[in-house]
C-alpha cells in the first residue's frame, strides 16, 4: 500500500520499533487469553494466578502505549513533512506547470488531500496495534487447536478477499469523488472571485448553483454515499463469513471432531478478544482507502520535491547579480500546450537520482508515465515533428478532440539595453504577458537563445537571470511583510518611497510590516512599485502598471519614474496599451497574435 510505503519512507526505524512493540503487545494479549483460559477451563491450570495476569496486563499496557506514542509521532511527522514538501513543491514547480494545474487543483491538494492523508496516517497506529493483537491471538489459537486455527485463518482470508474485491470498486469511487472535489473547489473559487457578478445576476446565479456548485456537491455526495454503502456490504460480508465460521466450528467441527471443551473455551475466548481489533480495522479501512487515493493524487500533481523538474535545483542563485543588464532574444519561441493533464513541464534534466529514469523511483509513475513535453523544432522518436507544436513562427495547430489548441509566441528577436526604455505593445492576447514571463525568467524559451550580458540563459543560470529583474505583473500579489528585505533602516526607506508615490496618507510601515493592504487597485500597484524600487535591480518590467492610475499619476509614471530609471541605467520594459505615451519609448516592440512585427525605426510614429 502506497500509504505504508510513505510512512516507512519517513522513518523505517520508528516503524520497526512500533511493530516490535506492537508484536510484543499482541503476544502479551494472547498470553492474557491463556491466563483467562487457565482460570475458567474445566481443568484449572495451576500456573494461572493474579500476579502473572497483572504482569501480562502491564506488558500489554506498556507496549501498546509505546507503539501508540511512536506511531503517533511518526504519523504527525509524516504529515508535517508532507505539508512542508507540498509547500516547497508548489514554490519549486515551474510556473507553467502550476498554471496548467490551476488554482483549484492546487487548493484541493493543499487542503483536501492533506486532510484526508492526515486522517489515514493518523489511523495507521491503531491499525498496526490491532493487527499485532490479531496475530498474537491467532498464534495462541494455533497452539491450542491447529484445526480450529486452520479453519479460522481460512475464513479470515476469505473475508479479507471479499472485502478486498468490493474495496477495489470502493477505491475507484473514492478516486472519482476526489476528481469531483477538484470541480467543487473550482466552483467555490468562482463563488469567492465572482461573488459580485453572481449577486448581480439572478438567472446566472441559479444556473451556476444548479449546474456547477450543487451539481458537483451532489455528485460528490452520491459517490461518497455509494462508496460508503458498498463498503458496508463488504463489512457485512466479512462479518457474515466470521459468524458462519463460528457456527461451523461450534456446531459442526466441535461435534464432528469431538474437540475437547478446553479447546472450545479457548476458541471462544480468542474470538471474543479478536472481535474488537477486527472491527476497528474494518472501520478504519475507508480512511485508509481515501488516504491512498489522496496520496496518489498528490503524486500525480508532480509537486513533490522528488520530481525531476524541481526548481530548487535550478542554478545561479548564489552568483552575484549583475549591475547592468543587456538582454538579447535571438529567434526565441514559446508555446502553450493547451490544458492537458498531467503535464510534464520543462525542467532541468533529472539529477543523479533520476539516472535510472524517474519511473524507477516511483512504481506509480511507471504505471502512468509522464508524457514527453514536445518542443518546437524537436522531433519525435519516429523522426517526425511532435504533435501540437507549430514550427517557429507558424500559428498553432488545432489538436485532437478534447484538447485546446495552444498559443505560439515568436520567433522573437530583440535587444534590451541598459538605460533604454522599451515599450511592448499589441492587442489583447497578442502575447505581451507571455513575453514578460520570458524576459523575467519565469518561462524559458523552448527554442532560440535568450542571453544576459552575452551569457545564454538555461536551467543552469536561470535563478541568476531572475535576480536581475524587478517585475510587476498584472496579477501581482502584495505581501504584507517585506519578506527578505529586513535590513536596517528599511522602514525609513519604505516610508520615503510611500511619500514619493503619494500613498503615505493611506499606509505606513513598521518593522517591515505594512499597516494595511486594503487599498484600491491603483494604490496597491503603487505599493508593488515600492517593493520593486526597494529591490533596485538592473531590469524593471511593468505589465500594464499605469492602467489603474489616475491621469496625473500616470503622467508621473511615464514622465518621471521611467525617466529616472532610464537615468539610473536600468533596462526598462513597459507593457502598455496607452498610445499617448508611445513616443516616450526608446524602442517599441509590437506583437500581433504572437508574432513580432517588423521593428519601426521611429518610435514616435506610433504617437498620436
Ligand atoms: N497559462 C496559459 N496557458 C495556456 N495559454 C495561455 C496561458 N496564458 C496565456 N495563454 C494564451 O496565450 C495568449 C497570449 O496571452 P498573453 O497574456 O500573453 O496576452 P497579452 O498580450 O498579455 O494580452 P492582454 O493585453 O489581454 O493582457 C492568449 O491567447 C492566452 O489565451
Automatic annotation (TrEMBL):
<dbReference type="InterPro" id="IPR017871">
    <property type="entry name" value="ABC_transporter-like_CS"/>
</dbReference>
<feature type="domain" description="ABC transmembrane type-1">
    <location>
        <begin position="14"/>
        <end position="290"/>
    </location>
</feature>
<protein>
    <submittedName>
        <fullName>ATP-binding cassette domain-containing protein</fullName>
    </submittedName>
</protein>
<keyword id="KW-0067">ATP-binding</keyword>
<feature type="transmembrane region" description="Helical">
    <location>
        <begin position="240"/>
        <end position="258"/>
    </location>
</feature>
<dbReference type="InterPro" id="IPR003593">
    <property type="entry name" value="AAA+_ATPase"/>
</dbReference>
<feature type="transmembrane region" description="Helical">
    <location>
        <begin position="120"/>
        <end position="143"/>
    </location>
</feature>
<keyword id="KW-0812">Transmembrane</keyword>
<dbReference type="InterPro" id="IPR027417">
    <property type="entry name" value="P-loop_NTPase"/>
</dbReference>
<feature type="transmembrane region" description="Helical">
    <location>
        <begin position="53"/>
        <end position="75"/>
    </location>
</feature>
<dbReference type="Pfam" id="PF00005">
    <property type="entry name" value="ABC_tran"/>
</dbReference>
<dbReference type="InterPro" id="IPR003439">
    <property type="entry name" value="ABC_transporter-like_ATP-bd"/>
</dbReference>
<dbReference type="InterPro" id="IPR039421">
    <property type="entry name" value="Type_1_exporter"/>
</dbReference>
<dbReference type="GO" id="GO:0005524">
    <property type="term" value="F:ATP binding"/>
</dbReference>
<feature type="transmembrane region" description="Helical">
    <location>
        <begin position="12"/>
        <end position="33"/>
    </location>
</feature>
<dbReference type="Pfam" id="PF00664">
    <property type="entry name" value="ABC_membrane"/>
</dbReference>
<keyword id="KW-0472">Membrane</keyword>
<keyword id="KW-1133">Transmembrane helix</keyword>
<dbReference type="InterPro" id="IPR036640">
    <property type="entry name" value="ABC1_TM_sf"/>
</dbReference>
<feature type="transmembrane region" description="Helical">
    <location>
        <begin position="149"/>
        <end position="168"/>
    </location>
</feature>
<keyword id="KW-0547">Nucleotide-binding</keyword>
<dbReference type="InterPro" id="IPR011527">
    <property type="entry name" value="ABC1_TM_dom"/>
</dbReference>
<feature type="region of interest" description="Disordered">
    <location>
        <begin position="340"/>
        <end position="405"/>
    </location>
</feature>
<feature type="compositionally biased region" description="Basic and acidic residues">
    <location>
        <begin position="359"/>
        <end position="375"/>
    </location>
</feature>
<feature type="domain" description="ABC transporter">
    <location>
        <begin position="393"/>
        <end position="607"/>
    </location>
</feature>
